[in-house]
Amino acid sequence: MTAFALNRLAQWQMNQGRLRQAEETFQEVLPLGPTTDRQWLSGEIGLAHLGLGELAYQWNRLAEANQHLQTGCEHIQAGNPLLLPSAYALWAFIMQIQGETDAACDRMTQAVNMARQSNITWMASDITAAQARLALMQGDREMTGRWADTCALDVGDGLGINHLSEYATLARVRTAQGNSTAALDLLGWLLNFVTSLALTWRRLEVLLLQSLAYQAQGDSVQARAVLAQAVALAAPEGAMRLFLDEGKPMAQLLGRVQVADADLANYVARLRHDFVGDDTRQADIHPPPTQPLQPLLDPLSEREIAVLRLLAADLSSPEIAAELTIAVSTVRSHMKNIYSKLGVHSRYEAVLRAQELHLL
User: Fold this and answer.
1) Contact 142, 112 (CB under 8 A)
2) What's the rounded Cα separation, in Å, for the pair 160 and 340?
3) What per-residue confidence (pLDDT) applies to 359?
4) So what's the pLDDT on residue 245?
5) How far, in whole angstroms, is CA 286 from its chain's centroid?
6) Fold designation for 302-356
7) What is the pLDDT of residue 291?
8) How far apart are the first and last CA of the chain?
9) CA 147 to the chain's CA centroid
10) Which of 121, 169, 189, 325 is at 20 to 30 A from 37, Cα to Cα?
């Protein structure tokens, strides 16, 4: 299969929400050697790197995402510079997450300028919407309000597939403005549209935004029910940033969602753990504890605290055993005691609960 075909297949797989398959397909493009049309191939290799960068971003592997974006931009500058605005926009979001607010704004401005210079109307509109979303993440309601008032989006004109990101951003802005009714009306149209086209990834995004709009409207029951659907849809592929980028409201709602399946519960615990570790909003988005903060009736021992700290560092049981010079069976015994005392069922939940109790 040619590089062109592989990239389009991977993009289709991403739209279908099959992120792991998309990663494998993009990886097949990278080792392809030069052909007689070197410039064209360079653009396709760059596109594959950008796709891998977006996937790494969604899995919250930001250093890896940065590397793919840097390599991808080097290739597409020679092969297909029209891809640069999207790459720069994603780069801006990574900078924002890493706390580089001014650099994020500068990089997004570059993306907007390049998109406008392309004379491709839908691209310029899409990147301008990305700029509005970045402003929303930064709390700039004035800028996002101006964008929402001038973006000229109208469902009555039909939902074009090139404008889905714009409509999603408009829904975010309306919810932030306190107009959750308008947001839900728009999201209802969006959900029907993306479902009819089997765009699973977009459907997941719409469900997340619906859950937040319902929560803002005061319908917590419906908010939790819709979020549970989104969790079930996202968990198999391990998507993270789609949740994390929604900030404090999503962190709070995830703290209240109920899932019966153990794997889904572990996935929710991972999301909540990553919310706590998100450096840009760490002071603002600690999820609420599932029960009031209080000293443990049966306190953790010094050894259990040591094991807990190594769990938080993501060490495996054998690695913890080696670090503490104890048997693996002893580590497992400590973990069992830790889970029991904290009232949790997995290492992710244990770390999160310990952070809530200020044990870490």
Assistant:
1) no
2) 52
3) 81
4) 96
5) 17
6) Arc Repressor Mutant, subunit A (1.10.10)
7) 37
8) 50
9) 23
10) 121
Q: Side chain identity at 47, as an amino acid letter? A: L
| Residue whose token pair is 């900078």 | 95
Q: Which helix (H) or strand (E) holds 59?
A: none
Q: Residues for the chain: how many in total?
A: 360
In angstroms, rounded to a whole number, what is the distance separating the alpha carbons of residues 147 and 124?
13
User: Locate tokens 């913890």: which residue?
Assistant: 320
Distance between CA atoms of 56 and 67, rounded to whole angstroms? 10
Helix (H) or strand (E) holding 211: helix 200-217
| Alpha-helical regions (H) of 98-163 | 101-117, 121-137, 141-150
Surface-to-core class of residue 258, CB atoms within 10 Å of its CB (0-12 exposed, 13-18 middle, 19+ buried) = exposed
Q: How far apart are CA 97 and CA 287, in angstroms?
A: 18
CA distance 146 to 187: 21
Gap between the Cα atoms of 249 and 211, Å rounded: 10
- Stated pTM of the model: 0.76
Q: Distance between CA 353 and CA 339 in Å, rounded?
A: 10
CB burial readout 300-327, b (16+ within 10 A) else e: beeebbbbbbbbbeebebeebbeebebe
Tokens at residue 31, please? 């080792």
Residue with tokens 């289709």: 12
Q: Please tell me the predicted confidence (pLDDT) of residue 103.
A: 94
Q: What is the pLDDT of residue 282?
A: 40
> Which residues, 6+ apart, have CB-to-CB distance to 110 below 8 Å?
88
**CB contact burial 333-342 (16+ within 10 A = b; e otherwise):** ebbebbbebb
Are 129 and 166 in contact by the 8 Å Cβ rule? The answer is: yes
Residue 238 CA to residue 358 CA, distance in Å, equals 27
Q: With contact defined as beta carbons under 8 Å apart, do 317 and 287 qualify?
A: no
Residue type, 339: Y
Helices (H), the chain: 3-15, 19-29, 38-58, 62-79, 84-97, 101-117, 121-137, 141-150, 164-176, 180-196, 200-217, 220-234, 241-244, 248-254, 262-276, 302-312, 317-324, 328-342, 347-356
Instruction: Return d(Cα 281, Cα 277) in angstroms, integer.
Output: 9
